Amino acid sequence: MRIVYYTDQIYLHGGLERVLANKLNYFSQNTNFELHVVTFQQGNNPPCYDINDKVKFHDLSIKYDRKKSFLHPKNIKHAPKHYLKLKSKIKQINPDVIVVCNYEYGFYFIPLITKKAIKIKEYHSSGHFNYISRLNNKKFIKKCVYKISDYFESRYDALVLLTKDELKYHNSNNTLVIPNAITHVSSQSADLSNKKAISAGRIAPVKGFEYLIKSWQTVIESCPDWTLEIYGEGEGEYVKELESLIKSLNLEKHVFLKGATQQLDCKMLESSIYVMSSLTECFPMVILEAMSCGLPVVSFDCPNGPRHMIEHNLNGLLVEYLNKNKLSEGLIDLINNIDKREFMSNNAKINVNRYKESVIMPLWLDLFKKNHIRN
């Protein structure tokens, strides 16, 4: 079976890129699939995560300005070239299956380009806010855009969602739920004695790190010997804002922006709590990675995501969405109660087994094979 994964790029660290690399490596090692990755803004950059040499890479070299909307005139002018290059590449590869990983022009192009290949759209973010926008929308043009998107969704053989909560955001009858898989469950566990909490992710406003930093100011009032390390890279302006916030709150000795690391699991094992302050998450892999290391997790109960992975008071704490005071209360609760941390650590290690590759990846194999036989 010849499979194409289509996305924008795989050189920036992120959840989608991590999950894609994991899938490609699994299929490379456990099947005889011929695997291709088609990108349109990879350039000469190497993949940010290690990917098996059996995978073939193709880049269309479309130079969109990613600081602007795809509908901005500076970007729209590239769409015809994008379509023609993508069509030519798909014809050249002649895949049995095309999996669309992100949401831009290619989402609309793929159903127009091929009728032969099995077409699968996988969603890596929550449809919650788009759903709210639809409910509140009064504009005719936006209604038309939503109808067009729904039409193209219906042209896919399958829409793969990460949680059951996401099903209500799609009108098509071709939906199914397959969670992300974790490739490795650590044989070690954090000893939970280090007075350090950790957070990680792309440094962007959607991750809500300003809420976390502000909450940490309250944490150190009662726990002054604890520190917070934030790992990740991202938007330069936002990084400067966070650095300025840390300085203005006099937290330079308590909160540290550490940049990207290839050894996040080691950093987790050196910590005692994982904390997430995201504004939106659908299925954050970093929570599974933290649980794999035996870290209890404190997280905002943001729409649809962490609540599917965290069982409140069992393997972590879910606190009121965007309430920095509740976030600091949850952190202080765990900081002051090592028995509770150890209890949650043990349960986190058990919980993560639900998402092992041996459990999740056969669902993908079944999806490919069923649709291949049907076609």
Automatic annotation (TrEMBL):
Question: Which PANTHER family has this protein been placed in?
Answer: GLYCOSYLTRANSFERASE
Which positions, given as ranges, span the membrane? none
Q: Which residues form the Glycosyl transferase family domain?
A: 191-349
Query: Entry's Pfam families?
Result: Glycos_transf_1 (PF00534)
List the Gene Ontology MF annotations in alphabetical order: glycosyltransferase activity
Q: Cite the InterPro entries for this sequence.
A: Glyco_trans_1 (IPR001296)
- What is this protein called in UniProt? Glycosyltransferase family 4 protein
Q: Which organism is it from?
A: Wocania arenilitoris
